[in-house]
Amino acid sequence: MNDNGAVRYKVAEAARLAGVSASTLRLWESQGLVVPGRSDTGHRQYSADDVARLKRISWYRVERGLNPAAIREALEGEDPSAEGEASQDSGLGRRLRSLRHAAGKTLEQVASDNGITASTLSTLERTSQGVGFKTLHDLAEYYGTTVSRLSGEESGEVPVLVRAGEWRSWPETTPGVTVQLLAEGPRMMDCHRFVLAPGAASEGAYRHEGEEFMHVLSGRLELVLDGDQFFELGPGDSLYFESRRYHSWRNRHDGETVLLWINTPPTF
C-alpha cells in the first residue's frame, strides 16, 4: 500500500492474481498491453485497475486466442465498466478459472463435460453467479476439489467463536440461496446456516462421500433422496443421511426457510 492508501501489488502478487507468470507480465509490458507504475526504487507496482486489466488480457489471450495487437484493440473498444466487472468478481470465479487454465481446458470443453453452456460457465467465472448447487458441485468434483474450498472457506484466519449475525457467507451462485459459515478452517465438519428464499432449490440432485445432518430452524424444506424418497421438514425437524445418496432440495415455504446443515467429512 502506498502513501495515499491505494493498494499496490508487486510483480509476483499481480501475476498470481491474474493467473499467469511474472515473466508473462513483463512480456505484456514490452508489448504495450499494460504499463505498471514504479516505486521510488524503480520496482514495478500494479494497481487494482492494472490487475483488472491483466485479467482481461489473459481472458482475451486464452479464450479468444487474440494476438497482442488484437488484444490492445479489444481493450480500447471495451465498455469502461468491463474491467470494473472483472475486478469485482469473487474468489470462487477466479478459482474456477485458474483450475480450468491449469487443466489446459477451454470454456467449451469444461462446459460440455459438465452439461452446461459455455456462456453459463463464462458468467460463473467472471461473476461467481448463475448456476445451481448441483452444477457447482459437479464442477468442484470435476476439478477434484470441494465447493467449500472453492468458496474460500478454508482461507484466512480461523475464528474459534462466531457471533450471531456475524457469519461470513459464500458467494451467492444461486439466486435465493445464502450459505453462512458457522465454522471455518481445516476441520472434520462443514458447518453451515442455509437461508433459502421462497422457491429456492438445488436445481438437481448430487452426491458425494460422507454423512449429513440438517435441522430446520424455520420454514419448510422438501428433501428428496435417490429420486423416490421424499421428506418434508418443518421447524424443529432433523434429518441424517449418507451423502453418497443422490439428494436434492427445495424451499416449499411461502417465506424464508432457515436450517443448520452439517457435512462430515467436508466433501461438499
Write the layout of secondary structure elements.
Blueprint: H1 11-18, H2 22-30, E1 37-38, E2 44-45, H3 48-63, H4 68-76, H5 81-88, H6 91-102, H7 107-113, H8 118-127, H9 133-142, H10 147-150, E3 168-169, E4 177-181, E5 190-196, E6 211-218, E7 221-225, E8 229-233, E9 238-242, E10 247-251, E11 257-264
Antiparallel strand pairs: 1-2, 3-4, 4-5, 5-11, 6-9, 6-11, 7-8, 7-10
Helix pairs in contact: 1-3, 3-4, 3-5, 6-8, 7-8
Q: Can you write the helix and strand succession as a string?
A: HHEEHHHHHHHHEEEEEEEEE
Give the strand tally. Answer: 11
Report the C-alpha radius of gyration, rounded: 21 Å
Low-confidence stretches: 1-5, 79-89
Entry keywords:
single chain, 268 residues, alpha+beta, Multidrug-efflux Transporter Regulator, Chain: A, Domain 2, 434 Repressor (Amino-terminal Domain), six-stranded antiparallel β-sheet, 10 helices, 11 strands, Cro/C1-type_HTH, DNA-binding transcription factor activity, DNA-binding, DNA binding, Cupin_2
Tell me what you see in this structure.
The protein is an alpha+beta fold and about 270 residues long. The protein has 10 helices and 11 strands. The chain has 3 domains: about 5-75, Multidrug-efflux Transporter Regulator, Chain: A, Domain 2 (Orthogonal Bundle); about 90-150, Orthogonal Bundle (434 Repressor (Amino-terminal Domain)); about 160-260, Jelly Rolls, CATH 2.60.120.10. The chain has helices at about 10-20, 20-30, 50-65, 70-75, 80-90, 90-100, 105-115, 120-125, 135-140, 145-150; strands at about 35-40, 45, 170, 175-180, 190-195, 210-220, 220-225, 230-235, 240, 245-250, 255-265. The strands form 3 sheets. It has a 6-stranded antiparallel β-sheet, with no helix packed on it. It has a 3-stranded antiparallel β-sheet with strand order 8-7-10, with no helix packed on it. Strand 7 (about 220-225) and strand 8 (about 230-235) form a beta hairpin. The longest helix has 16 residues, at about 50-65. The protein is elongated and about 65 Å long. The two termini are about 35 Å apart. Keywords: DNA-binding.
